[in-house]
Write a structure and sequence with these properties.
There is one protein chain. The protein is α/β, with parallel strands linked by helices. It folds into 3 domains: about 1-70; about 105-285, 3-Layer(aba) Sandwich (Rossmann fold), CATH 3.40.50; about 310-364, Winged helix-like DNA-binding domain superfamily/Winged helix DNA-binding domain (Arc Repressor Mutant, subunit A), CATH 1.10.10.10. It has helices at about 1-10, 20-30, 30-35, 40-45, 50-60, 65-75, 90, 125-140, 155-160, 185-195, 210-225, 240-245, 265-270, 280-285, 310-320, 325-335, 340-350, and strands at about 80, 100-105, 115-120, 145-150, 170, 195-200, 225-230, 250-255, 275, 355, 360-364. The strands form 2 sheets. Strands 1-2-6-5-4-3-7-8-9 form a 9-stranded mixed beta sheet, sandwiched between helices. A two-stranded antiparallel sheet has the order 10-11. β8 (about 250-255), α13 and β9 (about 275) form a beta-alpha-beta unit. α8 (about 125-140) packs parallel to α9 (about 155-160) and α11 crosses α12. It is globular. Belongs to the DprA/Smf family. It comes from Acetobacterium fimetarium. This is DNA-protecting protein DprA.
Length: about 375
Amino acid sequence: MEETLYWIWFLGLEKISVKQKNLLLDRFGSPQCIYPMSGESLKNTSILRKENLDYFEQSKSLEKAHRSMDYIKDNDIHLMTREDPLFPEALRNIYMPPVGLFAKGDLALLKDSIKIGIVGSRNPTVLGKKYAQTFASALSSVGMTVVSGLAAGIDGQSHWGSVEEIGGTIGVLGTGIDICYPRSNQKLFDRMAERALILSEFALGAKPLPYHFPQRNRIISGLSQGVLVIEARKKSGSLITVNHALEQGKNVYVIPGAISESQWAGGNQLLKEGAKLVTVPEDILEDYIVIDQRSKKDHAIQTDERILESPDEQRLYTLIKKGYRTIDELVVQSELPVNTVNSLLTMMEIAEIIEVKYGNIVLV
């Protein structure tokens, strides 16, 4: 309990960046060890600048952390730190991994192997809204989990399309988990807290500041195996999520739009740059092994098990089936040397067990 209190305090240090927090934890182990340190001691690490050190010294109070801890207990909110076994494995290896996540709802959704991020305009056309609901519902109805940002527009429509389906949906906030933004999404926010999952890396009470939303986008792409773009302008914030997805080796899908309409221009440009054009949900489903499970009530995505002669090939096969699609992910999860993984994947491709599609490894 005391350890949680210090984590809440640490996550609430808003003027110390996520990168700096990770470096401090790497050096000193835990917030409980960091709290009693003097500014002079931290100065010698070169992790914090002078203005950070002054802020750190002025933030030596646990009063707000006590109030926050009472709130999360009273409202069934779970705090997952980067040390927590429940912390999503997919987020541990992304650029600037979150130090911790506040979560409300169904934590089992984090264990689902296949997740698709859906992003797009906050002011979509009627057609864009229709696409968002239709695709989200179709993907989630066969067990895939839809991940989005609980913003107005495409985000909200995607959550509404999937919140009642088997795969469910995850909303990643750009505010504290105690704040619904925009307020017009309050009904959706409450439904997702009850039937799906809401996540935030920001401290309780954190307001919807402009830089919070680009920051949370790396979590949307980090949780997802692929990202679907629906109706995005050329300078849309959705493209930040796409950039994160590309850096993380994820699939990028785009629903094409009219070439004369500016609100589709960002997505159309992505198609010119090599994103996969999709017109029906099956265009996404074909990249994953998904069995229609609409009659089942759990979140598992199952495929026929294949037994391979080599134990190491079997290990990789199982990991790919669970949703790990890149060489980096397979190296980390299998704990095999990278040259061994490359060699095994080559043999598996020759044997037509796997194939590489759009930079990702999928089962045949």
